[in-house]
Predict the 3D structure of the following.
Amino acid sequence: MTLSLDHRFREGDPDAPALLLLHGTGGTPDDLVELGRVLSPSSALLAPAGPVSELGMARWFRRLAEGVFDTEDVLRRTVQLAEFVLAARAEYGLTGRLVAVGFSNGANIAAALTLLRPDALTEAALFAAMLPVPESPEHDLTGTRVFLSNGEHDPMAPRDSADRLVAELEKRSAEVTTHWHPGGHEITPAGLRAAKSWLTSNP
Ligand code: MLT
């Protein structure tokens, strides 16, 4: 079967959670492989490529300006990624936990998946994330687990937007773990350690 998004897949231990790696703007499926290995060395890795091009840079959805998203496109691309995830699970026999790991624009599409498509994704580790859609249906997200690591001084993912994302998730009964660091738009070693401990704590 041909899956709808270009991607890399590396097999892993079926008892370890599979990781869905979602790169940031201008990234590639290879970007987060090392991070995935650090987070969970034996995990299967599923790493698609963002299908939208912004001046040649791969992204997950269109934006009108930095931090201003094209909501219709976010909704459309969230459906596209959800369908890819469901098809890839079947194709590669990923029947256990699947945890999205996203940075920046990849964290934002992962956040959209958790809010809009809990049938496709119930666990996500988000680095430098924002609220991706102004409004979303009030799905019951009991059982959804989200880890968020953001910088207090991130000019691209302002605290207010990340706080709103956390509030929207918690309002729907998702379990959210936050890790705030003093830096900016980046993944810090402390954030990575916190994500690892969240990933290995009992779901
Ligand atoms: C986004 O567009 O998703 C955010 O502004 C972060 C970025 O990718 O630059």
Q: What stands out?
A: The domain at 7-200 is CATH 3.40.50.1820 (Rossmann fold). The mean pLDDT is 97. The chain is about 35% helix and 25% strand.
